[in-house]
Write a structure and sequence with these properties.
Strand content of chain A: under 5%
Low-confidence stretches of chain A: none
Largest sheet of chain A: 2 strands, antiparallel
Helix content of chain C: over 70%
Oligomer: heterotrimer
Strand content of chain C: under 5%
Chains: A mainly alpha (about 300), B alpha/beta (about 425), C mainly alpha (about 350)
Strand order of the largest sheet of chain C: 1-2
Chain lengths: ~300, ~425, ~350
């Protein structure tokens, strides 16, 4: 009983961590699923989103004069909401630009797209460093979701549960968008058979543009949500892109719920090893992946992908 | 970065824009540098090996500012023995393999007389191994791994920061009497973490405390939630953390979120100023070590800060910290040693540095400092500090709690482990 | 890929002679163009690594993003042999090749029935495991600080020996190894084995239907490529006199992919050679000029992918083709050269 009581907080913690992992993987999943492109710039877009939000939430008062003063006088919660709404849109624009560069690689070996995003990741990271400096940054969080609470005799972070809840909301919204709207249907069709989509008279070029922008903005949202937990520095993206790819392979390329379940699974494994064998907590997710993929070649719920050809 | 460098950088970029990436490009700027070097009465060239990308990019920048300020001061006085000092920097990327290549390049291609700079111990190691091969004097300004002046000590390498062992000695006894005897160790699972925690463990045993648990934190950990829950479940009286780099930054953020800093006694080995500058005070929990603080209230400190602000008016970090201080002091002492020796012969400079003694006044610390000739580590005052709640100045983040003399915190294990190469085995040259 | 007619393959080609001549004279001219000998050593080592890597990427069509692991295995093996067994060049390199081949063979067992994205992603996962173990297993690898003070054993050839302490001597040694690797790989890709793996790249299923054991060919290509990576890693440990875990990181694994593609590994045997040289020279040049070298470096890669995805070798082939078609008649020499640059 005692052992169980000890275990319970770690399970709860693992699940909330897992939801965050799933959120991190969401944008990556969309792009790899629809465009069959491994977006190595995912992490940099993640970081860029966080930096952009930080800039929107607490800009340098010297920049806009009295207007800036007035804006900074607004309640933090309001500015936070503005940031979380606006920053992903800005990152989507960067995503559009990147997709535009990508066009010349379509129809060629998928490695070219990957190489391009690898280069873009370097450029974005260094641009962040030039603009914001390489120091550690802190994003202010509204009072309502910060601080800690006591449960049993353990202290939990309020923000963490907010973040996990937020992740669930975003995941559900994206799912509803894909399943219940005509746009979602087109995107899914595009993932399934791009020739058919074109035959139906849908502009594939524009579809790809939007999907990439959407994926980029999802990366940005994940960045904003994770920043109060991980902190923010120019190279923070590396910490996001590796778990993202891992979760996608584990869940299976092209499977929405596969990615979500894989995220939670990775969260649980990392959380539990963190508690009982902490030195293995980072390796554990790779071992999980190798164990699963050895027996299920395409991950938990994967379908055959174009990228295998 | 000073204005001057930014101009050269811009012109260098223009040069890059002008030539395509063919073979011809490689004649460009380098050839030019050579001619310049020959024409200006052979300046003294110093290679700066510091990180501009990767985990320690920010500390690296601070370190470089320290070196540049010292060099600028000497150049203003007319250089070393009548020679101007020039610098060239290569990004070591917080990667040892790159550190090796940078050192090879700076020594053999740029013909640098001295190399300065390090934050990561892995990089410092890599550089010092190459430097030893050529006999090139190398200053490890800011890496605080005990191995740097222990088993990986070299005749050409001098270490200027306090190490994990020094900080543990300053903290353990005090903390045990103040907070209790049940300690939990949080150890980053790599060489520095293990060494530092081993030093702490030894001292805890010595003063009659006990270690309730040691939690190993893999390098690269970003999520500390399960570890922090585990710490709470263990209910120790003191948590001694030897967690460094980005891991430490993430941990700090998560401890602050939980308010655990107030609920538990924490000992954090060392907090580098560039890592914490500008963060909310909640992130600065517990007691931690440092070698210097800009509000020490000693003579000369406020002038030093003023010089910093005059030279770097646009830097985000508006006051200097320990990393800057170490970079500055190391460079200044190297150049002074050249002056005292009246020569830039490496062996003469090494011998000069080995008998270095700096008065407390010159160091702007509470105690006299001296170079340990066996380990090549600067023996200096170690301060314990905590977050300074309620200060008017937002930059005044530390409250200094105590200072320990170098003798009180001396790393005795390093003396036994260090095995410097003999002078004869170190190639000699004139810088 | 071009359907090559059955023509005899030579052991030594004109390109090889040009390459060896350029590299062989490098110690004479390197300094005067602002290079330094050590850089040459690293470039040649990475050429070996990239050439072996391209057997997998360019010829078999398998994108491995964990190849740094085998490079690292080679480096550690070389260091451990020197520290624990005997200070010996041949034993060290043998150990490097053997350990990397063993590691590669093991990983290939898991990967050889994978293709495309799953292959790429799984190779990352395995690479990370090796990297993690290298950092974790302090007692053997020295952990984060790496394996230090690895000696450079002398080149012993029975009747005499040659010290490799200085970088010029080491350069000639690694160049000799490069020559052996180039000739070996050149023969390999033009052998029946080479034809089969290229067929696997084009259409795995059809190759299987024809009756080849595709799994075994993929496994062999992976293992050979890992062994070459290990050889390069062993030489790298010698050059650096240390072995660090960083070379196993995702970044280092990504770099070898980049240099292979930038050079034009998909269209030419020589792509990796060109790519490694450009990769290091650009990095060295940019790094010495600006602290923000990463920005320009990234832009360079993006530009190559956007404007000339076939890489530098591809651009060269185009140029030669254009010139030879312009000179309607006497275009034989140019066309011949272009054909030679193809595999």
């Amino acid at each position: 009983m005692d052992a169980l009581l000890n275990l319970l907080p770690h399970i709860i913690n693992g699940i909330s961590l897992g939801l965050l992992f799933a959120l991190i993987a969401l944008g990556f999943m969309l792009i790899v699923g629809v465009m069959e492109l491994i977006n190595l710039a995912h992490g940099s877009l993640f970081a860029l989103g966080a930096y952009a939000a930080m800039l929107i939430i607490s800009p340098d008062p010297a920049w806009f004069g009295p207007l800036g003063q007035w804006y900074l006088g607004l309640p933090l919660t309001l500015r936070y909401i503005v940031g979380i709404a606006l920053a992903p849109a800005l990152v989507a624009i960067v995503g559009f630009g990147l997709e535009f560069c990508m066009r010349r690689t379509y129809g060629k070996d998928p490695l070219y797209g990957l190489l391009l995003t690898f280069g873009a990741a370097m450029v974005l990271e260094e641009s962040i460093r030039l603009f914001w400096g390489s120091g550690e940054q802190v994003m202010p969080v509204p009072q309502a979701v910060s601080g800690a609470f006591l449960f049993g005799d353990l202290i939990y972070s309020r923000y963490r549960f907010f973040a996990a809840g937020f992740a669930v909301a975003v995941i559900l919204l994206v799912w509803l968008f894909l399943e219940r709207t005509p746009y979602g249907a087109i995107i899914k069709a595009g993932a399934h058979d791009s020739e058919m989509v074109r035959a139906l008279g849908i502009n594939l070029t524009r579809l790809r543009l939007y999907v990439f922008g959407f994926g980029a903005s999802l990366a940005a949202i994940a960045g904003i949500v994770m920043t109060p937990i991980w902190g923010l520095r120019p190279h923070v993206g590396v910490d996001a892109v590796v778990p993202a790819f891992l979760i996608i392979v584990l869940g299976g390329v092209g499977s929405f719920w596969g990615a979500v379940i894989a995220g939670v699974l990775v969260g649980l494994v990392v959380g539990l090893t963190g508690a009982y064998a902490s030195e293995w907590s980072l390796l554990s997710m790779y071992l999980l992946l190798i164990a699963v993929v050895t027996f299920r070649a395409r991950g938990l719920f994967g379908k055959k992908s174009m990228l295998e050809a | 970065m000073s204005k001057k460098t930014s101009v050269t950088r811009r012109s260098a970029l223009k040069a890059l824009g002008g030539v395509s990436l063919g073979g011809a490009a490689f004649y460009g700027p380098w050839k030019h540098n050579r001619v310049y070097a020959a024409a200006s009465d052979k300046p003294l060239k110093i290679g700066i090996t510091s990180d501009a990308s990767g985990q320690y990019a920010n500390s690296g920048a601070s370190d470089r500012r320290g070196m540049h300020m010292a060099i600028e001061e000497f150049n203003a006085k007319g250089g070393i023995n009548g020679r101007k000092i020039e610098t060239i920097h290569i990004d070591t990327e917080t990667t040892p393999a790159t550190g090796s290549r940078a050192a090879e390049r700076l020594i053999s291609r740029e013909e640098c007389g001295f190399l300065i700079g390090a934050v990561s111990s892995g990089v410092a190691n890599a550089i010092s191994q190459v430097a030893q091969k050529y006999g090139c004097v190398y200053l490890n300004t800011n890496s605080s791994s005990p191995t740097e002046s222990g088993e990986n000590a070299h005749r050409v390498k001098f270490v200027w920061d306090g190490n994990g062992n020094n900080f543990a000695q300053a903290a353990v006894n005090n903390a045990m009497t103040a907070y209790g005897k049940d300690w939990l160790l949080l150890t980053n699972d790599y060489v520095w973490g293990h060494n530092t925690s081993a030093a702490t463990r030894k001292l805890v045993d010595k003063y009659g405390g006990s270690i309730v648990d040691e939690i190993l934190v893999p390098q690269g950990t970003r999520d500390f939630s399960s570890i922090l829950l585990k710490v709470q479940q263990a209910k120790p009286s003191v948590v001694a953390a030897a967690v460094g780099g980005d891991d430490q930054k993430a941990m700090r953020q998560q401890v602050a979120q939980l308010g655990l800093g107030e609920n538990m006694a924490w000992i954090n080995n060392q907090q580098d100023w560039p890592d914490v500058y500008g963060l909310p005070l909640e992130n600065l929990f517990g007691v931690f070590g440092t070698t210097w603080y800009y509000k020490l209230g000693l003579p000369g400190v406020s002038e030093f800060v003023a010089r910093y602000q005059a030279m770097y008016p646009e830097t985000a970090m508006q006051v200097p910290g320990n990393v800057f201080y170490n970079g500055y002091m190391a460079t200044r002492e190297l150049l002074s040693a050249c002056e005292r020796a009246g020569s830039t012969n490496n062996i003469k400079v090494i011998k000069e540095l080995e008998q270095l003694k700096v008065s407390a006044e010159d160091r702007m610390q509470h105690h006299d400092a001296w170079m340990n000739p066996n380990t090549h580590q600067m023996q200096q005052t170690i301060y314990l500090a905590t977050a300074n709640h309620g200060a008017e100045d937002k930059d005044d983040m530390f409250k200094i709690l105590s200072n320990s003399s170098p003798e009180a915190v001396q790393d005795k294990t390093a003396d036994a482990a260090a095995n410097l190469e003999p002078y004869e085995a170190t190639p000699s040259y004139e810088a | 890929m071009q359907q090559t007619k059955a023509q005899p393959t030579f052991w030594i080609t004109r390109q090889m002679l040009v390459l060896f001549a350029v590299l062989g004279t490098m110690p004479l001219w390197a300094e005067s163009v602002g290079l330094y000998q050590y850089l040459g050593v690293e470039i040649v080592i990475w050429m070996i690594f990239a050439l072996g890597f391209n057997l997998l990427l360019g010829y078999t069509g398998l994108p491995s993003f964990g190849h740094g692991a085998f490079f690292g295995l080679g480096a550690y093996a070389f260091g451990l042999v020197q520290h624990e067994l005997a200070v010996s060049l041949w034993l060290g390199l043998l150990g490097a090749v053997a350990l990397a081949a063993a590691g590669g063979g093991l990983v290939a067992c898991f990967l050889s029935h994978r293709r495309g994205i799953y292959f790429a992603l799984m190779s990352i996962a395995f690479g990370q495991v090796f990297w993690f173990v290298a950092i974790k297993w302090h007692a053997v690898t020295g952990g984060e600080d790496g394996l230090l003070n690895i000696p450079r054993p002398a080149f012993d050839f029975g009747v005499g020996h040659l010290a490799l302490d200085n970088n010029t001597a080491l350069f000639y040694f690694v160049l000799a190894v490069l020559a052996v690797v180039i000739i070996g790989l050149w023969r390999l890709v033009h052998s029946p084995f080479g034809k089969v793996i290229q067929a696997v790249k084009q259409n795995e299923m059809r190759t299987a239907f024809v009756g080849y054991n595709v799994w075994l060919f993929k496994w062999s290509a992976f293992t050979i490529s890992a062994a070459v990576a290990g050889l390069a890693g062993g030489l790298f440990a010698m050059a650096q006199e240390s072995a660090y875990p960083d070379v196993m990181s995702l970044h280092a694994s990504g770099f070898v992919v980049m240099m292979t593609l930038i050079g034009g590994g998909f269209v030419s045997f020589w792509g990796p050679v060109i790519g490694a040289a450009v990769f290091f020279l650009a990095r060295d040049l940019l790094g010495s000029m600006t602290e923000t070298w990463l920005l320009w470096y990234g832009l360079m890669f993006m530009a190559v992918v956007v404007f000339k995805p076939e890489g530098i070798a591809g651009a060269w082939q185009d140029m030669v083709k254009r010139r030879s078609s312009g000179r309607e008649r006497g275009g034989h020499a140019g066309a011949a050269l272009a054909a030679q640059l193809k595999r």
